[in-house]
Amino acid sequence: MTTNFGTLTPAELTSAVTGGIGTSPQRPDGNLKVRGEFAYASDLWHEDMIWGATLRSPHPYARITGIDLTEALKTPGVYAVLTHQDVPGRNLYGLEHKDQPVLAVDVVRYQGEPVALVGADHPETANRAMKRIKVTYEVLEPVVDMETATQETPLHPGGNLVRHVPIRRGDQAPKADVVITGRYEVGMQDQAFLGPESGLAVPADDGGVDLYVATQWLHVDRSQVASALGVAEEKVRLTLSGVGGAFGGREDLSMQVHACLLALHTGKPVKMVYNREESFYGHVHRHPAVLHYEHGATADGKLVYVKAKMFLDGGAYASSTPAVVANAATLGVGPYEVDNVTIDCYGVYTNNPPCGAMRGFGAVQAGFAYESQMDKLAEALNMDPVDVRVRNAMTEGSVMPTGQVVDSAAPVAQLLKLVQDKPMPAPMSADLRQLPGGVSNTTHGEGVVRGVGYAVGIKNVCFSEGYDDYSTARVRVQMAGDELTAQVHTAACEVGQGLVTIMQQIVRTELDIEKVTVLPMDTSIGNGGSTSASRQTYVTGGAVKAACAAVKAKLGDRTDIGDEVIDETVEWRHRATEPLDPETGQGNAHVQYGFAAHRAVVDVDTELGLVRVVQLDCAQDVGKALNPQAVVGQIQGGSAQGLGLAVMEEIQTSQGKVRNPSFTDYLIPTVLDMPPMSIDVLELADPHAPYGIRGVGEPPTISSTPAIVAAIRAATGLALTRVPVRPEHLTNT
Amino acid sequence: MRVNVTVNGEQRQADDVWEGESLLFMLRERLGLPGSKNACEQGECGSCTVYLDDVPVCSCLVAAGQAQDRSVRTVEGLASGDSLDPVQEAFVEAGAVQCGFCTPGLVVAAHDLLERVPSPSDPEIREALAGNLCRCTGYEKIMDAVRLAAGRR
Q1: Per DSSP, what are the bridge partners of residue B71?
Q2: With 50 as the cut, is the pLDDT of residue A478 above it?
Q3: Which residue among A210, A505, A560, B145 sits deepest, i.e. has the most Cβ atoms within 10 Å of its Cβ?
Q4: Helices marked H in A103-176
């Protein structure tokens, strides 16, 4: 793997201690994780605990006409069976609109919606008791088509439109030499984090509850739990346990309120752990999308206009659909300069599974469509696909469709050139294991063709549209023996990305203190904001840096402070953003933009429709790589999730019912599916961000998918307007 | 029922085991060894991989009762005291650990590979680890870790 650390290493970023920023020290939790001793949420145990379980609706849309708990309550070993009548506070919750019941009342709007809870002495006892709960349903005709949903049965009092974001910029009736149209579809992707939803709720003497849980955002979980329990927020204390991945899927509540309800009702600690099938029902997914695009360009390939109409299926409840819609709309033309833009993006309610945050958050769906259009434009003009992109590439100073000026590096053309200049892989292998189908021995090369494809993408970093996005950090310095040591405390969630390492590195660099301990993340300190939008290194990193500055003001140059303890807590905000104009979509809505480009090389067995991605190279600007190893790990992991969406991952639904809720039927890439990935990292500092950093996690997920599909098109000559590309799309069967 | 089993070299006994319980559940919930993970519980993800009489298995697919009078080695049994096994050490150094939920299974699978094939080729590594899903890394740094561990043994 080549890693190119380019262009900027300011002298002030060097540190006297080892393990500061710009280096790749080992994760503080690494040893525990490889030994199997790191405590994930599903590993928690209390000597007095019982097990919680959730009865879910088998129907996508139905009226509940009765619930009979009699037989379930008689089951030996059962401590409690609860319904919506046992929710003491508000039975509705949600990230943006409070529209989702903690437990269903008289209607269920998706298959898997929670209806009742059981607390029992063994998971199997709980299962048996759940089977004895008699729920009678009047099954209703589900709304399942995102393009017509707003004209169908209203599923919520305000109708089925969650949000419409229009963008109007420049000439609304432009003329162009060449006009390219396309309709694209994106299937429903699952985060498929490996650690299932789980947690342990322990009732407290003060009438409150202590919840140990795997989540992305402790404080917003807390406010939603407190509201449902009808208790003051300070009586709900959350501590982050080990989190087995997240990728957006833990931004909404899953078992948090349910476990706390059971704990307060029974007076016992309650553990809840979803199995994989329940996990598919228990969290939101990536919005499936239908995207209609029209690109107009001059004969020499300069974009004149982009028009788009996009539909995002939010499923039964709003979750973060409003923000996803805004992302798809505002990033809808991609990293290109376009003077005339007309976009309408609609997020709708249906009876499909609820959709919300997943890595890339609206930018992924738009990215597949606009990059497919750029390839189509190149083909129409007989231009090279990279050249047509470079011809239109955004740079620093370019204007977004929202009117926002891009005011830091936007090396779009450079990133494309970097991946274009990468060495190509060896010609098609004679080794069976390297061919499509692999050890299944489906081909020895006959019917196999190779293709190369490119894509580039744009993603906003941090929360947008005027949201008050901040993080809180506390840094405490004292002597241990004859050495200064530091502790750092936040409520920002470590979900695997390596924030724990980054926080240590920042403290080491800022205070020249080598021994830095990261305290458990919990709600005893102020809000850390969400681990999403590629924002934690930026915002919580910024807060830790600011807290260090406050400590440094008291510490000075001293290396011995005797019995003194310096303890500083700081709330830190990035620069403010503005709401979008509701009519024109104009406004400085985003904090920062991140860019990545991919080149994919694929081999396709055209007879069987099997694809093997041979090589997947990426170039990304990260502003400043605080931890180069972790940065490359994020880019490779994000690229892999993009590969999954390109060729295998989809939650398939039929009339609102999920057909493949298991790892047997929902396939994520294995090590055999993943090719070697060479990563070029640019470091073009953003002057507005701490250390110049640019959020890293999401951009690679956007360009990976369209690059792979472009390569499959190049190999096969097929149009391929839908992801994931399935074998039948390649064989016309 | 009662199950007698040797785990990580120690004779252990689990009582009140339900006939439907998996070896994974018994290890995690009855024997205090939650290192083996529960990501799919149907043999697809490999997170629960343990040695059963020196053969790696998905412990979620083995009934607890089947381990009677047999020997199990889990991820918790690979290190010698404070010193990590070379595979464990390489996973941390290479950056092969992010969320870490797949790590115990991958460490056992990689450990088994290197016991059988001390210097595996890349295709051999990929084939040996194909039963272990990772969602964070894209596997590149896991490949790096296995190569690193092989070079050190």
Answers
A1: B6
A2: yes
A3: B145
A4: 123-131
Mean of pLDDT values over A20-27: 96
Q: Does A289-464+581-731 carry CATH code 3.30.365.10?
A: yes
Q: What tokens were used for A293?
A: 């695009």
Given CB atoms, is B146 within the 8 Å cutoff of chain A?
Answer: no
Spatial CA neighbour of A627 closest among A535, A505, A462: A505
**What is B3-77's CATH superfamily?**
Beta-grasp domain (3.10.20.30)
Q: Is B35 on the interface with A (CB under 8 A)?
A: yes
Question: Residue A178, class by beta-carbon neighbours within 10 Å (0-12 exposed, 13-18 middle, 19+ buried)?
Answer: middle
CA distance A631 to A22: 11
Coil, strand or helix: which one is A442?
coil
Q: Is the peptide bond before B34 cis (omega within 30 degrees of 0)?
A: no
> Would you say residue A3 has pLDDT above 60?
no
ipTM score of complex? 0.99
What pLDDT was estimated at residue A4? 42
Quick check: pTM over 0.95?
yes
Q: Which two tokens stand for residue A661?
A: 């809720």
In terms of CA atoms, which chain B residue is nearest residue A429? Answer: B123
Calculated CA dihedral for residues A85, A87, A89, A95, nearest 10 degrees:
-120
Q: What is the pLDDT of residue A5?
A: 38
DSSP states along A168-233:
EES-SS---SEEEEEEEEE-------SS-SEEEEEE-TTS-EEEEE--S-HHHHHHHHHHHHTS-G
User: At the top level of CATH, which class does the domain B86-152 belong to?
Assistant: mainly alpha
CATH fold of A3-38+470-573: Aldehyde Oxidoreductase; domain 4 (3.30.365)
Nearest by CB to residue B39, choosing from A31, A196, A246, is A196
What is the spatial order of strands in the sheet that A236-240 belongs to?
A78-82, A114-120, A50-56, A270-273, A198-203, A209-213, A236-240
- CA distances in angstroms from B107 to A6, A126, A145, A379, B132, listed in the order given: 34, 33, 45, 47, 10
Alpha-carbon distance B25 to nearest alpha carbon in chain A (angstroms): 11
pLDDT interval class at A16 (50, 70, 90):
low
Average pLDDT (A440-459) is: 95
Per-residue pLDDT at A9: 35
Domain with CATH 3.30.365.10 in chain A: 289-464+581-731
> Which residues of A fall within a CB distance of 8 Å from B92?
26-27, 30-31, 33-34
Q: What is the pLDDT of residue A512?
A: 96
Name the residue facing B100 among A24, A38, A434 (closest C-beta). Answer: A38
State whether the Cα torsion A353-A356-A357-A361 is positive or negative: positive
Residue B137, SS3 per DSSP: coil
Q: How far is B113 from chain A (nearest CA, A)?
A: 15
**Interchain pair A38, B84: CB under 8 A:** no
Min Cα–Cα distance to chain B from A437, Å: 13
CB B44 within 8 A of CB A663: yes
What tens digit of pLDDT does each residue of A582-614 get?
Answer: 999 999 999 999 999 999 999 999 999 999 999
Residue-level pLDDT at A732: 84
A301 with A391: CB under 8 angstroms?
Answer: yes
Radius of gyration of chain A (CA): 26
For A42-140+196-243+250-282, give the CATH class: alpha beta
How many Å apart are CA A376 and CA A382, to the nearest integer? Answer: 10
Model confidence at A733, pLDDT cuts 50, 70, 90, reads confident
Closest-CA residue of chain A to B80: A35
Quick one: chain B helix, strand, coil %, rounded to 5? 40, 15, 45
The whole-chain average pLDDT of chain A stands at: 96
- Taking CB atoms and an 8 Å limit, are A633 and B137 in contact across chains? yes
Domain boundaries, chain B: 3-77, 86-152
C-alpha–C-alpha distance, residues A79 and A149, integer Å? 42
CB pair distance less than 8 Å for B92 and A27: yes
